[in-house]
Amino acid sequence: MTETRHGARQSASTRWADHRLTLPALCAWGVAFAVVDQPAAAVPVLIAAFACTAVSLALWPVRPSSPKRSRRGRVLRAARSALPTIAVCAGIGASIASAVLVFQPLREPPLLLDETQGMLSAELEVVGTPSETAHSGFAGQSVSGVRFEATLHRIQNTAGRSDRTSTRVLLFVDDLGTVDAPAIGSTIRVDARFRATDDGSQTAWLAFAEGRPQTIRPPGWQLAWAAELRARFADAARGLPGDGAELVPGLALGDDSLVDASLDEAMKDSGLSHLTAVSGANCAIVIAGAFLIAGFAGLRRSARLGAAGAVLVLFVVLVTPQPSVIRAAAMAGIVLMSMGASRSARGMPVLCVAVISLIVTDPWLSHSFGFALSSLATAGLLLFTRPLTAALSRWMPTWLAAVIAVPLAAQLACQPVLALLTPTIAPYSVPANLLAAPAAPVATVVGLLACLVGALIPALAVPTAWLCWVPAAWIGAVARFFAGAPGARLPWVPGLIGALLVLVLTALALWVVLATGAPRLRRFAAVFLIAAIVGVYGGVLVGGTIALRLSVPQNWRIAACDIGQGDAVLVRSDGVTALIDTGPDPDALRACLDRMQIGRIDLLVLTHFDLDHIGGLDAVVGRADAVLVGPTDGRSDVSVVSRLVESGAAVHQAARGDRGVLGRLRWEVLWPTVDTTLRGNGASVTLLFSGDVDALFLGDLGESDQAQLMAEGRVGRVDVVKVAHHGSGDQSAELYERIHARAGIISVGADNDYGHPNNRILEILSGAATRVFRTDQLGLIVVSIEDGQTVVWSEKAVAAPAASALSVPPTRLETRIDRVRTRGNCTRRKTNSQGLDPATLVGAGPPRAGGAGLGHRDVPRRAQHPAAS
Fold first, then answer.
1. Does 297 have pLDDT greater than 60?
2. Per-residue pLDDT reduced to its tens digit, 762-811
3. 795, exposed or middle or buried, with CB in 10 Å at 0-12, 13-18, 19+?
4. Beta strands 781-786 and 771-774: pairing type?
5. To 5 degrees, how large is the angle CA 66–CA 67–CA 68?
6. Domain spanning 107-219, CATH class
7. The architecture CATH gives domain 552-841
């Protein structure tokens, strides 16, 4: 009996020892997260931490005089036993606050603070892998190129004043491919403009380069070999077919620069995106291989440990020190040191020591989602794999239970953060990981060997890469299959509330499954859990979605989606739908399309290629049948067109005279002209829809372009106008007087940085007797036809300001504007199954140079649409 109790006490002590550092690790993360977000709090935190440490050390020698068995005695002894933990937490907090006080000034060079808007000459060291991107640029215009992290060492203004610093920036270089980007470790000089990020961001500044960077110093030998290995392996992978080619570098080296947007989305939807990030499994494979080779060489134990440590360092250099990599490498290094000291290394203490040491060294890691997901996944594997295996083995073989428990444990631990990132649930992530898991280590091992063999024997680079392609292609096929399955992404409550709800439900589910006592309470908790999930989905999400859909007028013609600072407007007639621009965010556009119950897009119009008009393209790729685009300007525009062509859409460059039908509506392109040399805003595709409602869509045309549009003489009165350029002041009063629209829709983001809508356009619209409807104030705006009248409906109601001839609608949700003008019956021409007239899609004008240049033959088939920054 004594032995049993002693064994129980020893087991409990061991379990407690595994978690002695859990609270300090959580404390470190919380303090760092708060202090880097509010650097001014560093001094108060430092003072409070020193005070707590002093009090803890002062109280430690004091022993409670109350009897041990009394309640007061137990409380006092418990409080005294907590003093060491409090002292450790306080010491960690003091270290983090000190680190912020030391490093924060380096993130804010005086010259950058004084001349943020000016052009500066910058000297930087490249520290990150370049990736293709499309972004809004310094001036808000859509541009493409590459981005990579760099350490800013020196800046100089045009007057010769200079500052030396050492701060991390994210550099954007336009019209540059990843192949031509500078290698990691090289020092470059570039003229750039800088924009500050949030205080908590790891990169303190965004730098927008003007022109190409000049390499002033190549990487040293300690980094050059790794850059050459990565480049050769990526070149070998480019020659492979399909998704496997894009995944090979990611699975072996964590390099996902070849992964295009659609495959990246499929990997995320299927819960497999973690496979292309280097983690503890990769480090374990590398260390095991080093131990094996050292063992065959007959090295002693200390030499084997040294060899494993050296190989680990080389591996980190090769794959680049990303947050997940340094977490895995830190844990591996701690384990190796424990082995060298002949001490056992338990999982949770090792993880906690790694987290504490890394966050104390770099407090801004606390804001890294990659670091958080990597740490949580590891914690989930350490804490839940064995209990879940034991619980699942009641209903299935133990080996199958263990296979299921591994991805399930990691998914449960990461889900609150994933829900915070994207408010969705991936229900197929566990089965997808079950099918992909056997191929992942094979791809990693074979990929590393292929990388090394290809470097030593270049002729074998592609043949060995083929060996890695087989498991990579399987993983890609699994991702595509589950991403295309029904319900691949289930909606969830957004924001912090959604993340907390996931956390509570996950904790409750784990307690129900893993607890051994209180069967009645567990049954009650299980019923409550099921009811909560059904309630969230049935009552809040599904029911709310149905209610939202039913609230929208069913006989609608125009719907301006509330997608922030950008344009995305739907036009529908007789079940045939057109979408004019896609806004900046695919998730916001998907939500609007779902609410309006739009599946296929019969006609997609991209008025021009700024990011606030094409950033949401991912939401409609593969769903559009015909596409009209404005004139292209550069490689990024052509890659967008190429992606649409590859998705099966018929793409046509729009010009004045193009016309067609959309259900009972007729549409005509009024701008740009056939031979225009304009690009960007000035070449925005301008459309006129005619029928039971007349509507003019002006894209982002400026005043001078609007004047040229009027000079063509085709602009008359309309019922609705989509106001140009989100309500900027660059507008023609004469145009709005001529069209005399009853309703003016301004698609604009709340609290935008551009001052949209401008007072001038509001005055112009007021003078033209055009009532203004703004998405930033009203949300979704819908124009419908009811009893021969044009009705404007909005999802929100706002009170009109006191002075307000210029303002948005009155507080009613529906606003009837004057009866539409009488016109004859609209004769519907013979159309194809999509409702488009192929004979009039191109227009009757003479053939134009470049008009067919966007077809299948003249765009690169493998061009990649860069992900939005």
1. yes
2. 988 988 888 989 988 888 888 888 777 778 888 776 533 322 222 333 32
3. middle
4. unpaired
5. 115
6. mainly beta
7. 4-Layer Sandwich (3.60)
